[in-house]
Amino acid sequence: MSTDQVIIAGGGIGGLGAALMLARKGLRVTVLEQAPEFAEVGAGLQLAPNITRMLDEVGVLEKILPLSVQPKRLVFMNAVSGEMLTTLDLVDARRRYGAPYIVLHRSDLLDALREAAEAEPNVVLRTDHRVTKVEDRGDSVVVTCANGAALTGQLLIGADGLHSVVRKEIVQDEPVPSGYVAYRGAVPVEDVDRRMDMDDVVVWMGPGLHLVQYPVRAGKLYNQVAVFRSQEYLEGKEDWGTPEELDRTYAGMCEQVRVAIPSLGRIKRWPMADREPLTNWTKGRISLLGDAAHAMLQYLAQGAGQSLLDGASISTALSTLGDGAWAREDVDRALARYESERVEAAGNVQSTARVWGDIWHVDSHVPMILRDEAFRRRDTYDYHLVDWLYGPVREGADAGNVPQPVGGDAPAEATSAPTPAHA
Ligand SMILES: Cc1cc2nc3c(=O)[nH]c(=O)nc-3n(C[C@H](O)[C@H](O)[C@H](O)COP(=O)(O)OP(=O)(O)OC[C@H]3O[C@@H](n4cnc5c(N)ncnc54)[C@H](O)[C@@H]3O)c2cc1C
């Protein structure tokens, strides 16, 4: 039995990021991770300027930059015809938002967070600790693990992912399956039949599917994610989204897309699900962050980043509570501040991600023509539809430093077309 200020259930990117940021605010934290080690899946991650700006402030960005790639463009392609539809300039985006857009291996981010957390004297990291029971006793919270360990804290943060146990203390709901499945992995760049530029993050959009490609680990590995709507799921098959269905679904795509599919791992697949946005993440001395609070579909490439923003927000909110016993009303006030900063903001990202998925995956003729036309008419320097997410825009960014569009043939009135963010 030990007493902590904050106990975090779950040592993924969200949990470890929060532990680090809480410790930097002088709070004592224990992280309980169910797995035998802190580990991430062998795939890539994109972090947009709204996330890297914050990581810079807490000193993590400088640790991950050498292992990251800073792509020059987001490129959107039609997966059937092979046509390039639009691009978003990421070099100018760095000036606009004051922080880079980066792509990196998930393990490189997780390791950087773990190492930084381990270096903090106020952080205790425990593996093989699966949280099974949570009890709010009014003046403290008691967390019990499958291995028999019991910890008492002033506050429990559930950072235990999509299938969160802690979330059940706040709301009785279930993940919302999308019927889509992902195959993904980062492999040595020389093992991929790569057709696209290493400076680009590429999104191929097709009927009921998309493929994302980008380099990670300073360009040594190439990350690919193939996602598709499973017909087998719609037919009610138990074993849906199989590798055979992956091959069948992508068989009708253009050659650049087809050649990518064999280098994807077949052993593991990820059925995609999210959660309905909540209006509160807190009950008494229990709160949530990351996927436990706001699991989202990956189409805006923001889930992990939003979990890090949660950590920054809750650590600032709790930092006012001091070293003694935390009175319940003070905890309430701090968590209300956290929720006012984060619940609606993350909920907007959750809801918008669903819409982006619908736009990418349209599968009937006329909507596809309209989507492609809207994408084609975009200017590569048109950021106005991602400003809400990547911003705030730095003062003066719109005045004078926006280069002319490549080719210069985008009609001026076309800038209201959707600017696609991506995952
Ligand atoms: C295909 C795909 C692509 C994506 N791309 C991006 C992207 O480009 N950018 C981005 O920002 N996000 C992306 N995401 C989303 C991102 O992966 C998640 O939002 C992020 O990993 C959530 O982090 P988390 O720490 O909240 O949860 P998780 O990563 O799920 O971590 C939860 C941790 O809690 C542990 N745990 C679970 N239950 C318990 C328990 N009872 N007791 C103790 N420990 C427990 C788990 O073992 C795990 O370590 C993508 C997701 C997918 C599926």
Describe the structure.
This is 3-hydroxybenzoate 6-hydroxylase. Its cofactor is FAD. Keywords: FAD, Flavoprotein, Monooxygenase, Oxidoreductase. InterPro entries: FAD-bd, FAD-dep_Monooxygenase_BioMet, FAD/NAD-bd_sf. By secondary structure, the chain is of the alpha/beta class. It is built from 13 helices and 17 strands. Strands 1, 2, 7, 8, 9, 10, 16 and 17 form an 8-stranded mixed sheet that branches. A 7-stranded mixed sheet has the order 5-4-12-13-14-11-15. Strand 1, helix 1 and strand 2 form a beta-alpha-beta unit. Helix 1 packs parallel to helix 5, helix 1 packs parallel to helix 10 and helix 2 runs parallel beside helix 10. The chain is globular. The C terminus is likely disordered. Bound molecules: flavin-adenine dinucleotide (FAD). Flavin-adenine dinucleotide binds next to helix 1, strand 3, strand 11 and helix 10. The site of flavin-adenine dinucleotide has 34 residues, from helix 1, strand 3, strand 11 and helix 10.
SSE topology sketch:
Layout: E1 2-9, H1 13-24, E2 29-32, E3 44-47, H2 49-57, H3 61-64, E4 73-78, E5 84-89, H4 90-97, E6 102-105, H5 106-118, E7 123-126, E8 131-136, E9 141-145, E10 150-158, E11 176-188, E12 200-206, E13 209-216, E14 221-229, H6 231-234, H7 243-250, H8 255-258, E15 270-274, E16 282-283, E17 286-288, H9 291-294, H10 303-318, H11 328-360, H12 365-376, H13 387-390
Parallel strand pairs: 1-2, 1-10, 2-7, 4-12, 10-17
Antiparallel strand pairs: 3-6, 4-5, 8-9, 9-10, 11-14, 11-15, 12-13, 13-14, 16-17
